Amino acid sequence: MTFCVGIRVEEGVVALADTQIVLGSERISKQKLAALDYADDSLFAMTSGLRSVRDKSLTYLGEQLQDQSEPIDRMYKIVNMFGDQLRRVREEDGAALAEAGLRFNTNAIIGGGLHADPSPQLFYVYPQGNWIECAPDSPYFIIGRTTY
């Protein structure tokens, strides 16, 4: 049962995530808020859905960010890269997950700011890899168990 919320405020962005993972009758604690390592910028990702899809997508994104020859100047470009890696994982693992009765249902909230962004940014990424950006009339995103 995941609950994550990202909020854009005047001073920047706020990210909150629970740490509980339920595996059948077992409950364990795991980070759901990941700091993304790129240059000296502060970036984060939070996910809901299958932990294996999250870990693999973020690993691939981390490698891509490390191998980047051209500097990335805008957050939406990093969000596009994450979407590409999410689609890559779907291509690699989607059929096997479906055979096992598991849904490819990873949603993400990605936030932070790069030097060309006018202010800190907040994005919601769907399981298909497409995204929307936070807007002033709705300055937050929630993923996971939204009944809380």
UniProtKB/TrEMBL annotation:
<dbReference type="GO" id="GO:0005839">
    <property type="term" value="C:proteasome core complex"/>
</dbReference>
<dbReference type="InterPro" id="IPR029055">
    <property type="entry name" value="Ntn_hydrolases_N"/>
</dbReference>
<protein>
    <recommendedName>
        <fullName>Proteasome subunit</fullName>
    </recommendedName>
</protein>
<dbReference type="Pfam" id="PF00227">
    <property type="entry name" value="Proteasome"/>
</dbReference>
<dbReference type="GO" id="GO:0051603">
    <property type="term" value="P:proteolysis involved in protein catabolic process"/>
</dbReference>
<dbReference type="InterPro" id="IPR001353">
    <property type="entry name" value="Proteasome_sua/b"/>
</dbReference>
